[in-house]
Write a structure and sequence with these properties.
Length: 202
């Protein structure tokens, strides 16, 4: 906006797709590492990393880098995504809900997670706001703020998705809000993949 450079429609959708893929893998891995750190060795983390690798393969195909892709540019993105790349993303998005359901059941019913996270590390809504907490940590404390909804930056105003909120603001809520956000990101991705304009970017 500051530079007065319009972003092509296709590039707007590519930005959303890459952002939401990043959110999906980051939240999934945080959940896996949480149980690893709590003492439930290996399985949740390995499952999370398995799914992460599928998305990182897409990042590498598109940008040449698996992490820290440096993909956005003023006025668009660095390179277009091929039809093959988008087809792989579609397959990942189609298959992810089944994994997420199984992963969520494994995590939320785990006694270690329940005993060590519920009622622990409570961050009140008031303290979260006064301390400037943002993102899923704030939402886990019940702060209904998501910049995608509030500012509707880019083209996020076009997508139908919810902003999950926690009730207690404890460690469990901070984990579970992320799981719910992954599900909402998958909804955004399905919508974006369905209507993204055909390439190339112009």
């Amino acid at each position: 906006k500051l530079a007065g450079i319009p972003v092509p429609e296709r590039a707007e959708y590519l930005r959303v797709i890459m952002c939401e893929l990043t959110r999906v893998v980051n939240h999934t891995c945080v959940a896996g590492f949480l149980l690893q750190d709590l003492g439930a060795w290996m399985t949740p983390l390995v499952w999370a990393l398995r799914e992460r690798e599928k998305v990182l393969d897409v990042f590498e195909s598109v940008t040449g880098a698996r992490m820290m892709c440096n993909y956005f540019r003023f006025g668009g993105v660095r390179v277009d995504m091929t039809d093959d790349d988008l087809a792989i993303v579609q397959r990942i998005v189609d298959e992810y809900p089944a994994f997420l359901d199984e992963f969520e059941a494994l995590m939320t019913k785990n006694e270690i997670l329940q005993q060590r996270c519920q009622g622990v590390g409570i961050l009140s809504k008031e303290l979260a706001i006064s301390a400037g907490i943002s993102g899923p940590m704030a939402r886990a404390s019940g702060v209904p703020y998501d910049i995608r909804k509030i500012d509707k930056y880019g083209i996020y105003g076009r997508f139908d998705f919810k902003v999950p909120l926690g009730e207690k603001g404890d460690v469990f809520d901070r984990f579970y809000v992320r799981v719910l956000e992954v599900a909402e990101s998958l909804k955004i991705l399905q919508q974006a993949l369905k209507v993204i304009p055909k390439g190339p970017i112009i």
